[in-house]
Structure formats: C-alpha cells, structure tokens
Request: fold
Amino acid sequence: MIIYLHGFASGPGSRKAQFFREQFAGVGIDLLIPDLAAGDFENLTISGQLEVIGRLAAGRPVTLIGSSMGGYLAALYAARHPEVQRVVLMAPAFGFLERWAATLGEERVQQWRESGYTSMYHYGDKAERRLSYRLIEDGKRYEDFPEVLQPALVLHGTRDTVVPPSASERFAQLRTNARLHLIDSDHELTDVLPLLWDLMREFLL
Reply:
C-alpha cells in the first residue's frame, strides 16, 4: 500500500498528487490520497492528520509519500509505526512551529493566538478559509525532526524559500538510512515532476 500525503491547505486534487497517481497507475499501483483535513480544515491539527493516516493504513505495511507538511507528517508517522516500510519526503516541513513565525511574522501569530482563528488561503478550495490556533497548540506536542529509522528518500529544492533545504540537510546528515537529493527548484517542485518520479521509482519499485 502506498499513501500520498498532500501539503498544508492543499488536497487530494493537487497537481503533484494527481501526477503521481497517474504515474503509479501506469505501473499497476493504486496510489491512495486521503484528505488529511477530513473535510474540516478550520480545526486542522497534526494529531488529527496522523489519525487520518492511521485509519487508512490500519496497521498494515505501508509506504508514505509526503509533500511539505505531508512530508513532515510522513516522518512523524513512520517514527511511531515500524510497519511503515519506506518514506519519500518532498520539501518536508521540518521545524514545523518555527516556520509559522518566519512565514507570518510574530505580530500576526500573536493576533492568531489571541483571537483563536486566522484566515488562510486554501489552494485546494481556491478560497480563504478560517483556521484554528489549535494547529499550533497541538503542534507543540511533536518533535521538529522525527527519528525515522526506515529507508528515506528526501527531495528538496535548492531555491525553496518556504522550508529551507538546510532543514532536510540536517535531517539526512545523521541518518545513514536517508538519501538526500537537492534539486534546482522551488518549494512546489512542480517544474521537476518527471525527475521526482524517476528518483521515486528507482527508490520504491
């Protein structure tokens, strides 16, 4: 079983998710792509997304492919579930909590904390959506760099301004089970999808 985990404020219909679904279908594999928000983006949390993965995997051997926040979730889940066989992490959002302050600025994060909610653009819905501060509060329960013991393929763009490639370099540096490829691309990696598939296919199939 192979499960694809989409990024923050994205969904199963994302360009990357559908590209990889088509590629895996071409080799006779059904790629499973859950909605990690389970239809409730407003109350999104790390714990809730891990529960979505757990319900789908149901304790069976599984390979996880994750993009951005989905990559971080794949690492968190693998660190807690030895039945995970392999992980592919694309621009994984390691250092999850510190990313928010860097992206939004301290003032907006403080407003979010005080009001309990903020507005975020949801790329899947193509509209602004409310998001609870519970995402941040819940995120404090989880480590920045999960202790993944399974074989891991890490793919990161050298021009990524959302999650710096140094985060993936730090993750891979002390793990002999992790293979890091730095690629001339940005955070989305959508301009190098055929290359990503070639690397992924070599690693998984």
About this structure: The first strand starts at residue 2 and ends at 5. The radius of gyration is 16 Å.
